[in-house]
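User: I'm writing a tutorial on reading structure tokens. Could you give me a worked example: one chain, its sequence, then its tokens, then a sentence or two explaining what the tokens reveal?
Assistant: Sure. Here is the example chain.
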Amino acid sequence: MDRLRKQGFTLVELIVVVIVIGILATVAVPQYLKATERAKLGKARNAMALIAQGEKLYRADLDTYIATGVDTTNTTLGAYVELADVDADPDWTYQVGGASATAFTVTATRTGGSNNGESITLNQAGTWNLAGFTP
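And here are its predicted structure tokens:
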């Protein structure tokens, strides 16, 4: 008789498996998206630190900071630090504003994802402002 018994899953077992997979996906996908946003935030913070380093070297050379945008960052500060990857970053736009002889502010604005349009800043003193950015 055991030879006549068919092997396989019942419809109820398949439905239970699909429900369990659905529950796992509803928990895992948001956590994955948050993790990728945190990684992109880390990438932006690293790029902003490089820009700030370039600004400080520029000031040491010319006694002032310089305001610059994403398209010109590599040409103006590129002589001081390597910024080719910063200019080519598809996830963020970078801008240096408020530049004077004693101060500057680097701003990174998210260009996609769940944080599209949100910004973070770094000033010449090394103070980060992540207010409003929720990875």
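What the tokens reveal: The domain at 11-129 is CATH 3.30.700 (Glycoprotein, Type 4 Pilin). The chain has a mean pLDDT of 89.
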